[in-house]
Amino acid sequence: MDMGSFAQQFAQQLINGISLGSIYALIALGYTMIYGIIKLINFAHGDIYMLGAYMGFVATTMLGLSFVPALIFAMVAAGIAGIIIERVAYRPMRNAPRIAILITAIGVSFFLEYGMILIATPQPRTFPAVFEASVYNFYGLIVNSQQILILVISLVLMAGLTYIVNHTKVGKAMRAVSFDADAARLMGIDIDKIISMTFALGSSLAAAAGVLVGVYYNSIDPLMGMMPGLKAFIAAVLGGIGIIPGAMLGGVIMGIVEAMVSGFFSSTFRDAASFVILILILLYRPSGILGKNVKEKV
Amino acid sequence: MLKVEHIDVFYGAIHAVKDLSIEVAQGEIVTLIGSNGAGKSTTLRTISGLMKPKSGTIVFEDKNIAGVPAHKIVASGLCQVPEGRHVFANMTVLENLEMGAYLRSDKDGIAKDMEDVFQKFPRLLERKEQVSGTLSGGEQQMLAMGRALMSRPRLLLLDEPSMGLAPLLVKEIFHIIQEINAAGTTVLLVEQNANMALSIAAKAYVLETGKIVLAGTAQELASSEAVRKAYLGG
Ligand SMILES: Nc1ncnc2c1ncn2[C@@H]1O[C@H](COP(=O)(O)OP(=O)(O)OP(=O)(O)O)[C@@H](O)[C@H]1O
Ligand SMILES: [Mg+2]
């Protein structure tokens, strides 16, 4: 491969990687926010993404909504589902040992996956083409309209989230609760309400990712959340679990690495690459790229 | 203003506070002294709603608040500055103070109270935009107190404000506690530094292994043989 075509291939995979990575980032944000606030690895989070994709499917096919209303519909529905799951499954376990609540999360994951199989059958569904897919060619670099859509929507959502977390009362309360729940309670913060809000926000971002993936790959199925869920979890750990910009960074890095591995080697190694990343990060920097290597304060 | 009657508090099987009763009248500074592990923090945490008593009542301004969740108790006008400050170290000084005013929506009142806090603690004003994790221990204590004041409490609970501070700073903090009290806020002060605490309090209780063993005016206790021996170094 000569230099010119290498550079072109590299640029092409970068584009693919960034759009895939923004999906991971959207899912990873929910993992990291929920971990930040109740120290739970929410294994059902990938299934919320699946649920979001189905909600988008329902909105576009049965309700006949166009893309943006369907996206909002899916985000709201998944947000409500997130609130219910926290209320019903996790809140009663709040003071239980970590392992018990982790197992609960796995249970919720199965419940969503097989519940969806029951309702919607295991058959993949074809996501309607809500967009005219056009393909642009910039000097040999192929970009399609879905990739642009994924990037734009992800950026808007991440900017929105960053604003909420840094500049609104609820967002500041989220940071306060995740830093020190008892101190937050002494400020008059109803931590149950803030935890609900966190689940709602995290779940709606995952739902947005689900809808975007539906639009991109045109196909959704009840188990579609397993692999991206796992990878987004790795992305969250890579960026530093509990750290919001870390989830964005981790997601994009994961996407780029996967795209490069599939582009330059073979897509069969793609999944392996993410697990290699996980192992490396756990070995050499368990607190993640943006995490501080310090123990909890005394 | 605050009447705690016969409360028992447990950590699992550990009986940390036993049949404890204390009373704080409007406008007073009352102190609760005792050595390590006596149950002082547990008592405050129970009053502020972070813990539930197994039995007994806690009446604050005619309402029984025993077992009411902490955030609702704050809303009723009682705020605790926890032992060890517990400032939100990942947030700026300003954001910490904003969290103190979490339940309020009167923008002008909040701005005014923030000015008051900065007047009491000029060092906080200089460090307004600084991330509070980088403040010194004394500054963090000031921030924790300022943050609590932002909720406009009628009763302020302070848990060992002197902990880990240099004598000069302890003096400054105690002076400010008197100032806060003079401005109309009732104070329940937990201390190991009995000398300082008794010097500003009107009434005092001595706690030993979860039980009140002595009570009286601060003067009485400061001159009592038992207290001098155990807590005032002779
Ligand atoms: N989280 C906990 N779990 C179990 N026991 C606890 C816990 N916190 C405190 N205790 C026990 O309860 C008793 C009272 O503790 P508390 O913290 O109220 O004491 P204190 O008077 O505030 O002490 P100090 O002056 O050291 O702060 C102690 O025997 C302590 O070991
Ligand atoms: Mg204590």
UniProtKB/TrEMBL annotation, chain A:
Task: List the membrane topology term(s).
Answer: Multi-pass membrane protein
Output the Gene Ontology cellular-component terms: plasma membrane
What is a GO molecular function of this protein?
L-valine transmembrane transporter activity
Instruction: Locate the transmembrane regions by residue number.
Output: 20-41, 71-90, 99-121, 141-165, 194-217, 232-257, 269-287
Asked whether the UniProt record includes Cell inner membrane among its keywords, one would answer yes
User: Localized where?
Assistant: Cell membrane
**InterPro entries per UniProt:** ABC_BtuC-like, ABC_transp_permease, BCAA_transport_permease
Keywords of this entry: Amino-acid transport, Cell inner membrane, Cell membrane, Membrane, Transmembrane, Transmembrane helix, Transport
DNA damage recorded as keyword: no
A single BP term in Gene Ontology: L-alanine transport
* PANTHER family xrefs: BRANCHED-CHAIN AMINO ACID TRANSPORT SYSTEM PERMEASE PROTEIN LIVH (PTHR11795), HIGH-AFFINITY BRANCHED-CHAIN AMINO ACID TRANSPORT SYSTEM PERMEASE PROTEIN LIVH (PTHR11795:SF371)
What's the family? Belongs to the binding-protein-dependent transport system permease family. LivHM subfamily.
Name by which UniProt lists this protein: High-affinity branched-chain amino acid transport system permease protein LivH
Species of origin: bioreactor metagenome
From TrEMBL, chain B:
Q: Give the coiled coil ranges.
A: none
Q: What's one Pfam family here?
A: ABC_tran
Report the InterPro entries cross-referenced here.
AAA+_ATPase, ABC_branched_ATPase_LivF/BraG, ABC_transporter-like_ATP-bd, ABC_transporter-like_CS, BCAA_Transport_ATP-bd_LivF, P-loop_NTPase
Its name, as the record gives it, is High-affinity branched-chain amino acid transport ATP-binding protein LivF
Database matches in SUPFAM superfamilies: P-loop containing nucleoside triphosphate hydrolases
The record's annotation in Gene3D superfamilies points to:
P-loop containing nucleotide triphosphate hydrolases
Q: Which family does it belong to?
A: Belongs to the ABC transporter superfamily.
| Organism listed in the record | bioreactor metagenome
Q: Where is the ABC transporter domain?
A: 2-234
Keywords, comma-separated and alphabetical: Amino-acid transport, ATP-binding, Nucleotide-binding, Transport
Which one GO biological process term can you cite for this protein?
Answer: L-amino acid transport
Gene transcribed to yield this protein: livF_19
Q: Which GO terms describe its molecular function?
A: ATP binding; ATP hydrolysis activity; branched-chain amino acid transmembrane transporter activity
